[in-house]
Design goal:
377 residues, alpha+beta, 13 strands, 26% strand
């Protein structure tokens, strides 16, 4: 199989190519909702910093350009602190939790080899590609490590992170009893009883046609009703963020891949989470809850119920990425972790020299700071 790598402009994305991109996402080697056209297209339209991203399009020779086998979305940058040479930076919007590539799982090795060969060749005008929030446990990284040395490229990881993840088939009641602390379980039961004193409590997952404009409106209002609204960080605080979210939800919902989970007391929704499916994985996006019920921890109750229902609701999926930061409460509920990294694919000799210089500068700085540290007596 002979593959071609083309660098497209955003204007080159015809309806046929967008449909092919969406189809590729469904069979991607490493699932990634943040590289779905349902996410990237509205992000490019409404969010700052991605006015004209480049699309790396990998296809089999002889096709009409619509049978895509690999897609990468990039911004060209003059340099960053980690890599001060012109390079590409993988698409990562203010609302993205992962970057990376979409690669057809049936021909993954061939696609990665074609991609690396292109990036190491004369037609590639940059010194490398930087990825933030890269799936370090993904199968693509394994292929990069095995194929990259054949083409003289270097994979450099400059920061390692971890993120809470849930494996739906391993979740359920037994998970709650064995993984959550005794105090956490008691607190959840207490909060649920207090909500029950107000009215009947119900947890409802919404998918398909149920994820409509009314569902989106409820979520947005709840997110604004919490601390994000007070700080001006809610999606409704910025019209561009709101428009991005609404269009993204319509895209995922239209494909049957949006999942919202609502916690109700009586007829009132007091908490909602937005999640999206990609291939054999789910990706948590954001949560909204009403501060009038803050003492009953509605966000925690919603997530505990998701853990309880995950085997029946999402049991066929490989994992559920929390999208959570290092200080999120979800880390106490989802106890398993997946590794992420900030990394650079270095493709030129000048890039490798610069990388060594940057590394030397960091070591010298650490040594100077150590030498200047006060000595206790």
């Amino acid at each position: 199989m002979k593959l071609s790598v083309r660098l497209l402009q955003w204007k080159d994305l015809t309806p046929g190519r967008l449909a092919a991109w969406a189809d590729l996402e469904s069979r991607a080697l490493d699932p990634n909702a943040y590289l779905s056209p349902h996410f990237v297209v509205p992000a490019q339209r409404y969010l700052a910093g991605h006015a004209n991203p480049l699309i790396m399009w990998i296809e089999q020779d002889g096709t009409a350009g619509h049978e895509v086998l690999g897609v990468g979305i990039f911004d060209a940058v003059r340099g960053t602190r980690q890599f001060p040479l012109p390079h590409l930076r993988a698409f990562c919007s203010p609302h993205s939790k992962l970057s990376g590539l979409l690669v057809d799982s049936t021909v993954a090795s061939e696609v990665i080899e074609a991609w690396i060969a292109y990036c190491a060749g004369k037609a590639f005008h940059w010194h490398g590609i930087e990825f933030v929030y890269w799936q370090a446990d993904g199968k693509i990284e394994q292929l990069v490590h095995s194929i990259g040395p054949q083409y003289g490229v270097t994979w450099h990881e400059y920061e390692r992170l971890s993120r809470a993840v849930l494996y739906p088939s391993q979740a359920g009641e037994a998970y709650i009893e064995s993984k959550l602390s005794t105090n956490r379980r008691k607190d959840a039961r207490r909060c649920m009883r207090r909500l029950g004193d107000i009215g009947p409590v119900a947890w409802t997952p919404l998918q398909g046609a149920a994820v409509d404009e009314a569902c989106t409106d409820r979520f947005l209002e709840l997110e604004r009703a919490g601390w994000k609204g007070e700080q001006g960080d809610a999606l409704l605080s910025n019209s561009h963020d709101e428009q991005f979210f609404r269009e993204m939800v319509r895209g995922f919902a239209g494909a049957g891949r949006a999942l919202f989970a609502e916690l109700r007391v009586g007829e009132r929704v007091i908490c909602s989470t937005s999640n999206f499916l990609s291939g054999r994985a789910a990706f948590a996006f954001k949560i909204g809850w009403h501060r009038d019920f803050a003492k009953m921890s509605p966000g925690t109750l919603n997530e505990v119920e998701m853990i309880r229902q995950a085997p029946s609701l999402l049991g066929k999926l490989d994992f559920f990425d929390s999208g959570a930061g290092q200080d999120s409460y979800i880390n106490e509920l989802w106890v398993d972790r997946r590794p992420l990294s900030h990394s650079i694919l270095v493709t030129t000799g000048a890039g490798r020299i610069m990388l060594r210089a940057v590394d030397l500068g960091k070591r010298l700085k650490r040594r100077l700071l150590t030498d200047r540290a006060p000595v206790s007596v």
